[in-house]
Design a protein that fits this description.
Helix content: 25-40%
Strand content: 15-25%
Largest sheet: 8 strands, mixed
Strand order of the largest sheet: 5-4-3-6-2-1-7-8
Structural class: alpha+beta
Low-confidence stretches: 341-420
Number of strands: 28
Number of helices: 18
Mean pLDDT: 78
Shape: globular
Radius of gyration: 36 Å
Length: 633
């Protein structure tokens, strides 16, 4: 084969184009590389201008530190960089760009110009670092024109300008999300499409950059950091911006991960966020979230992908556990805060009663020929007053469902001349107190009655209807039964048995990192029923598994080393599957006594969601029903 196709060295131009193709495959790759450089320059304001989808022109303007004439003379040569000097610097990267391939690659496939510090440099296939003086500018202006015009074989694979422009906008948002302290502006074909101010919070930048229409109050910031220190700093720390269950999506595309300012594709960390929200989002939906993670540069390697989209971690298991457990703890607190008490669907008052004080009526009732007889009976405690005879005293406004009950008799009340003695006034005050006490008793009885659960019946073979606190509850019989069974399984998990294996699972670890991971998880795995032994380095045996475990040795390896599933999540998924299979199904007919018991148990659940995240019940208030039938309150 070597006789017909001998090995030969490529000429410089072909080699440059091949190398450039690894870095610059379409316009948004140029946007990515140039924005990285602008951010690294210390800029506080960055403007990105795009024309023709970035094929015709891309211009990046920043107010950073700028470049000298000497920098411009070498910046677009292969592997020219100011970010690293020796190979050891690769293990302590603190900048976004570092390889020194970007400008050289852009010059190989387009016409590149850079203006900074009173000088302008042009570089392309036909021009080699031509330097000329220009008016001095602050920062740097970098421009790419005519992408792939000298490389037709690659240009034909570009999409339409509008589509390429959308990709460039996506890259712009990606870079802007990580740096809320910097102001970013995006101009496409002369029109400003995005204008993000500087000094925003991460939550504000996340919502504004992604143009989310949901209420910002539905998003939260969750933070944590490693207890393990390196050089006095946490091994890792993170802020996660995440939406509550009301903000969900049908795919994982809107779960993004940033590590040290770079967006990376890391399946296990996306999965950690997913696991953290498991049980709080309905089946088939996922949270909207962005994790901004800071790790020790020595524990992560970004130099494994031409576009730095991937990273390799020394030990990701601790970070994975920190992410998933912190998010899970947040949703537990969120659930307790929102569902710990039975809150009406509408916090507005159910209705209001206004009782007016009428002194003339009261005076007539206690004056005249019967006054002495009435007084003596009242003082003896034997008098009763019918509702028709009751004096009407002002008790302010009594609002059921709230506490708002006051008695403030006016000091300017007028009394008739027939009853102006101190004794008569005392009798009136006693009447007021009696009436007020009766009103309180009435309200307490009404509130107690309304807070009781009243089972109405079953409907459509799926739902149970109940009334409580003047709200109609529509309860999913499968979801409530599934949650009851799941809670019972989880609460008795410690007492659940294990099953010994006739042939132990054999796990050959691939690295010391995996050995360390199993050592960390050994005790937690034992708590849920997996017994591990370590006869020798690099070799482990699993001799016992939980009695409900139906997986294989391969399944266990995948869960631990590929998906990095927490031990507690393994047993949770087993319990959820068991509960789901055992719960009554849609269409099952159950007797009223059983249905009533399920309804009462539904209101004792700490978390009114099934293990897969679906709500146990839906609440419709009296006001909402009135609105539906076009009735006024």
């Amino acid at each position: 084969m070597s006789l017909t196709n001998p090995v030969k060295t490529l000429n410089a131009e072909v080699a440059r184009k091949i190398a450039a193709g690894e870095v610059i495959d379409r316009p948004n790759a140029i946007v990515r590389e140039l924005m990285d450089n602008a951010i690294d320059s210390g800029a506080t304001s960055i403007t990105v201008e795009i024309a023709g989808g970035g094929i015709d022109r891309i211009r990046i303007i920043d107010n950073g530190c700028g470049m000298t004439k000497e920098d411009l003379q070498t910046c677009a040569r292969p592997h020219a960089t100011s970010k690293i000097a020796t190979e050891t610097d690769l293990m302590n990267l603190t900048t976004l760009g570092f390889r020194g391939e970007a400008l050289a690659s852009i010059a190989a496939v387009s016409r590149l110009s850079i203006q900074s510090g009173g000088w302008k440099m042009r570089a392309s296939v036909t021009e080699d670092h031509i330097i000329e003086p220009v008016a001095e500018t602050q920062g740097t202006i970098v421009q790419s024109e005519g992408l792939f015009e000298n490389f037709p074989a690659r240009r034909v694979f570009l999409k339409r300008p509008a589509t390429e422009g959308v990709m460039c906008k996506g890259t712009f948002i990606e870079k802007a999300l990580a740096r809320p302290d910097i102001a970013f502006r995006l101009i496409i074909d002369g029109q400003t499409k995005m204008d993000l101010p500087g000094n925003q919070s991460q939550k504000e930048r996340f919502i504004s950059a992604n143009s989310y229409t949901e209420d910002p109050a539905l998003f939260y910031t969750v933070s944590n950091k490693s207890q393990q220190l390196t050089e006095g700093k946490p091994l890792w720390s993170f802020n996660v911006i995440i939406g509550e269950p009301a903000v969900s999506r049908s795919s994982k595309k809107e779960i993004v991960v940033y590590v040290n300012g770079r967006k990376i594709q890391e399946y296990s960390l996306v999965q950690a966020i997913e696991y953290g929200g498991q049980g709080y989002f309905p089946n088939g939906t996922y949270p909207v979230a962005a994790a901004f993670i800071t790790v020790d540069p020595k524990s992560v390697d970004f130099n494994i992908h031409p576009a730095k989209k991937e990273a390799r971690f020394y030990d990701i298991s601790d970070l994975h556990h920190g992410l998933s457990s912190t998010i899970k703890h947040f949703f537990q607190q969120y659930t307790q805060a929102n569902f710990a008490e039975d809150k009406p669907a509408d916090s507005s008052p159910m209705y209001e009663r206004h009782i007016s004080y009428k002194p003339a009526q009261t005076q007539a009732a206690i004056s005249g020929s019967n006054f002495s007889d009435f007084r003596s009976k009242y003082m003896a405690g034997t008098h009763t007053t019918s509702s028709a005879q009751k004096p009407s005293f002002s008790t302010g406004t009594t609002t059921f469902g709230t506490t708002k009950n006051t008695f403030q008799p006016s000091s300017t009340m007028a009394y008739s001349n027939t009853a102006t003695s101190t004794e008569d006034l005392v009798q009136q005050a006693l009447f007021a107190q009696e009436y007020q006490d009766q009103e309180k008793s009435f309200e307490q009885a009404l509130v107690q009655k309304e807070s009781e659960v009243r089972f109405i019946g079953s409907c459509l073979g799926t739902f149970l209807l109940a009334e409580k606190n003047r709200n109609l509850f529509i309860i999913d019989q499968h979801a409530v039964h599934e949650r009851i069974l799941f809670d019972r399984l989880m609460n008795t998990q410690e007492k659940a048995g294990t099953q010994p294996l006739l042939i132990p699972y054999k796990i050959n670890t691939e690295s010391k990192t995996q050995d360390n991971q199993l050592n960390k998880l050994k005790e937690r795995l034992a708590n849920i029923g997996f017994t591990l032994t370590n006869p020798k380095d690099g070799y482990w045996e699993v001799t016992e598994v939980p009695e409900r475990w139906t997986g294989t040795e391969y399944d266990l390896r995948t869960l631990l080393f590929v998906k990095h599933v927490e031990p507690e999540e393994i047993i949770r998924s087993i319990a959820a599957m068991t509960a789901c299979k055992a719960a009554i199904k849609d269409g099952y007919v159950i007797d009223d006594d059983t249905a009533a018991k399920l309804v009462k148990q539904a209101f004792t659940l700490e978390d009114p969601h099934c293990p897969h995240g679906r709500p146990v019940y839906t609440v419709i208030s009296r006001e909402q029903l009135f609105t539906l039938v076009k009735r006024t309150f």
